[in-house]
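Our consortium's second objective concerns turning raw sequence data into structural hypotheses that experimental partners can test. To show how far this objective has progressed, the report includes one record in full. It was chosen at random from the queue rather than selected for favorable results. The single chain below, 203 residues long, was entered without modification.
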Amino acid sequence: MNDMTAKAAPDTRRYAKPLLRGINHLALTTEDMKATTDFYSNVLGLPMIHAMKVPHGVAIGPKNRGNPPYEDIRHYFWDMGNDSLLAFFEIPKGVKKQSDRDDIGGMQHLAFAVSAQNFKAMIQRLKDHGVKVDGPVEIFDNIYSCYFYDPNGIRLELCCKPEQGEEQRIIDTFIQSRKTAAEELKTLHADPAWVDRVASNLS
């Protein structure tokens, strides 16, 4: 269901390639790894590729490089397509509050790219598992999305431009002209040199 075997879309960027390769993994948190595993493996159909417990001693002291500060917690990984991973840390139950997705620094939502062939099937799959789905709705320019929540209250989105078929071209779909981007950037900072520098990669 996640188009793992689809060949990569051609690189049609009209600007220099970014220094980053893309997402290696997105690491989220849960206090119920069983429910999370059921949802991502069995409802969304993402293949689990790694299940582990964080080695003892990593949670505290100089070995910690940003892991949650709890010993021996589970850390699972799923293939979310296009050579990128979705990961969850299992935080001990009851030690943290439910986060607000609109908090500063929080994750507002996670959008998955879905092929036109799989878009309707994924929506039906969610409904068959009793997941409430909002949409699909056209968000702009023939791009359609539907929204739903995972067991942790994380807002998720399926996003598709039907005319692009199996090879969804995300950059091509969202890229703006330099003029359009600059008009918005001017409302953020009035310095023309700053605006030109930020928008210089666009044509």
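The partners drew two points from this record. Residues 1-7 have pLDDT under 50 and may be disordered. The longest strand covers residues 134-140. Both points have been shared with the crystallography group to help prioritize constructs.
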